[in-house]
C-alpha cells in the first residue's frame, strides 16, 4: 500500500545517505515514475528530500535533517504495527513485514519487551478460512494498475447477474463487510463506481494511463455501498429457539425481542434486492419472515423452486 511504501522510503533515507530511484523501484516493485511521485509526496509532507547528480548520485535527505525519534510514542508505533499485521492477513504485501521490522528497530532496548506485548494484544484477522488464489491475483493486478495509473478492463456481473463490459480508472482497493471492492471511475457510466472483486471476470490491464481524479465527497468513505442497491423495507424476522445462536451472530442483542414460547423476533430494515432473498433463505427453517406478507410469498416461491430442483431426479 502507498502509505507503507512512503514510510519505508523515509526510514531507508534516514539510514542511508543516498539511494538510487531504480533501487527503490526494484525494492518496492513499482516503476521509477511512481518512486518520483512518492518523493514529491514526502517533500510536500515537510520532509526535505533532494536529488544528487553524477555517477554516485541518487535520492537523499537534505544535509542536517533528522527525524525526531519522539515524533511518535511507543504506543503509537505499536498501533501502527498492529494495523499492519492485521492488513497483512488479507492483503498479501511483503513490504508490510519489512516495515514492521523497521518500526520495531526504532524502539529502544529498554522498551522492547513492553512494545512486543502491546503489539500482540490484538490481531484482526480478515482472511477467509479457504484459499484465495484467484482473488489474490486480482488484488495484485489492481494494485499495480493503481500504482501506475493504468486503465483496466473487465466483465462485471452485478447483483442481478447482468453482465457488462467495463473500462475503469482504478483508484482504491477497499475491504468492507468480509469482501474486497474496487473504487474506480467507470468510463461507461461516467462516474465513480464500486465493484466487488468476486464479480469481476476477465480482468486485464491496458496500456493507456490516466490522471487521478478527486474522489466525490460522498465516496471518500465507502459507506453502506451494498445497502444502497435497492429500496429499504421493514422486515420482521422470527428465530426459533434452536436458532438463537444465529440471531445473536447476525444482530445486536439489543435488537432481539424474546418470545414467551422461546426464540425471538427481530425488526430491522434491509434493501430489497437479490442479496436480501438469498440472505433470508440462508437461514433455512431456523427463521421465518413474519412481515411483510409479499416477502413471505417471494421466499415461498423461491423455496418451492429449490425443492423442484432437488426433486426432478426422483420423478
TrEMBL record:
Presence of the UniProt keyword Transcription in the record = yes
Q: Coiled-coil annotation: which residues?
A: none
Keyword annotations: Transcription, Transcription regulation
Classification via InterPro entries: CBASS_pafABC_assoc_protein, DeoR_HTH, HTH_11, PafC-like, WCX_dom, WH-like_DNA-bd_sf, WH_DNA-bd_sf, WYL_dom
Q: Which residues cross the membrane?
A: none
Is Cell wall biogenesis/degradation tagged as a keyword?
no
Entry-linked Pfam families: HTH_11, WCX, WYL
The record's Gene3D superfamilies line, in alphabetical order, gives: Winged helix-like DNA-binding domain superfamily/Winged helix DNA-binding domain
Superkingdom is Bacteria
List GO molecular-function terms, semicolon-separated.
DNA-binding transcription factor activity
Q: Where does the HTH deoR-type domain start and stop, copy by copy?
A: 2-57
Q: What is this protein called?
A: YafY family transcriptional regulator
Amino acid at each position: 500500500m502507498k502509505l507503507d511504501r512512503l514510510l519505508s522510503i523515509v526510514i531507508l533515507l534516514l539510514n542511508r545517505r543516498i539511494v538510487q530511484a531504480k533501487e527503490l523501484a526494484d525494492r518496492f516493485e513499482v516503476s521509477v515514475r511512481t518512486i518520483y511521485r512518492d518523493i514529491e509526496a514526502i517533500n510536500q509532507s515537510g520532509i526535505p528530500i533532494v536529488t544528487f547528480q553524477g555517477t554516485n548520485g541518487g535520492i537523499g535527505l537534505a544535509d542536517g535533517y533528522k527525524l525526531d525519534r519522539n515524533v511518535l510514542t511507543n504506543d503509537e508505533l505499536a498501533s501502527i504495527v498492529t494495523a499492519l499485521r492485521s492488513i497483512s492477513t488479507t492483503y498479501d504485501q511483503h513490504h508490510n513485514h519489512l516495515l514492521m521490522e523497521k518500526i520495531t528497530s526504532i524502539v529502544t532496548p529498554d522498551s522492547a519487551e513492553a512494545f512486543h506485548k502491546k503489539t500482540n494484544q490484538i490481531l484482526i484477522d480478515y482472511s477467509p478460512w479457504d484459499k484465495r488464489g484467484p482473488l489474490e491475483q486480482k488484488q495484485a493486478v489492481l494494485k499495480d494498475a493503481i500504482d501506475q495509473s493504468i486503465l483496466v478492463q473487465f466483465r462485471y456481473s452485478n447483483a442481478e447477474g447482468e453482465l457488462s463490459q467495463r473500462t475503469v480508472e482504478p483508484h482504491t482497493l477497499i475491504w468492507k463487510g468480509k469482501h474486497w471492492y474496487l473504487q474506480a471511475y467507470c468510463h461507461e457510466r461516467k462516474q465513480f463506481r464500486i465493484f466487488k472483486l468476486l464479480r469481476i471476470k476477465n480482468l486485464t490491464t491496458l496500456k493507456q494511463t490516466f490522471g487521478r481524479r478527486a474522489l466525490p465527497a460522498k465516496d471518500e468513505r465507502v459507506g453502506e455501498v451494498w445497502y444502497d442497491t435497492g429500496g429499504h423495507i421493514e422486515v420482521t424476522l422470527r428465530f426459533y429457539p434452536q436458532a438463537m445462536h444465529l440471531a445473536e451472530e447476525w444482530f445486536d442483542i439489543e435488537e432481539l425481542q424474546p418470545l414467551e414460547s422461546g426464540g425471538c423476533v427481530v425488526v430491522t430494515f434491509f434493501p430489497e434486492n437479490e442479496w436480501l432473498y438469498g440472505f433470508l433463505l440462508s437461514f433455512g427453517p431456523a427463521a421465518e419472515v413474519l412481515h411483510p406478507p409479499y416477502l413471505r410469498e417471494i421466499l415461498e416461491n423461491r423455496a418451492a423452486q429449490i425443492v423442484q430442483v432437488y426433486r426432478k431426479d426422483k420423478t
